[in-house]
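WARN no homologs supplied; continuing
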Amino acid sequence: MTVDTTALPAVASRRRMLLRELERPDLAVSNVTPNWFASVMGTGIVATAAAALPVQFPGLRLGATLVWALAALMLVALCGASAAHWVRYRSVAARHHENPVMAHFYGAPPMAFLTVGAGALLVGKDWIGLPAAVTVDWVLWTIGTAMGIASAVAIPYFAFTRHENRPDAAFGGWLMPIVPPMVSASTGALLLPYGPAGQFRTTLLWGCYACFGLSLVASIVVITLIWSRLAQHDVGPAAMVPTLWIVLGPIGQSITAVNLLAGNAAAAVGAALTHALLVVALVYGFAMLGFALLWTAIATLVTIRAARARMPFALTWWSFTFPVGTCVTGLNGLSAHTGLVTIGFLAVAYFAGLLTAWAVVAARTFHGALVTGALLAPPKAR
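OK structure emitted
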């Protein structure tokens, strides 16, 4: 075995640069990695899930609007922190995509944009008015969709060509870069009535279905790999167990997408096609709901097992929020189209779980980021 000694000076130089950057005094932005945007996703989904919950009660909409405002502020703050991270720690930031675990979380920023945009249209309009809400949603949807398609292409490409993955490497995070187009399909459906009539709306409708298919097929492949890993290897480190809940993300979001697209299709196509899309939405939605319930049970049992072994807190805990929230929005759609009391009950039950998870994870994140600073410490300080 020979060693290429000509590359050693360059490696040493890069290492010295990284060390100098991590020794800077502005450590607050030294560890702003892409997975931080999962906190915006997990917060924003609380608002969007509450907006169409089958059972509405006093204070729910106001609470949802407050949570949306918090998610919007978090998005602005994280965008600023990420920009500062890239400016002050460029060598560190430029290597995130080389990490076979961290790279996949580049799917979080686009979903954060899309979630906050949808929240503006669903509940934010109460405060900023409908015209402003529509404008905000169009802007964030456009940015989030462009970023999401880029992540769906680039991150798998890096995984295929640059990352070294063991046979047991598949984990829930592999879904992160390929789910954003599914979120674009759901949130794009909400914008259908607000686009120019004619070709634009029709193109948007079928474009959203294309995003749905892109994400669905890729997600099925990855979920199969995750199942295979769990069956042939083990559940992995306790800190990574929460990422198993990410599997619910594409499942719940796909149910949400087909129901929202069918519900808003009348703005773009005729009555007959709209009815056909609704039939597809119901058949698909209830079929996928079965798998969602199965995976919820499996993930719950594995999580309880890990909790008994003292599962450490990490940003991966935000995986308990957004995926569960997508199940709520999916159930909201099925409830609206069928009126089934059982589905409404399930939606409320999942929403209660979402609220509980969000409260716990948000409190732990606040403590770790702003009280102890442990979550913001650079890797070498941990």
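Residues 1-8 have pLDDT under 50 and may be disordered.
OK
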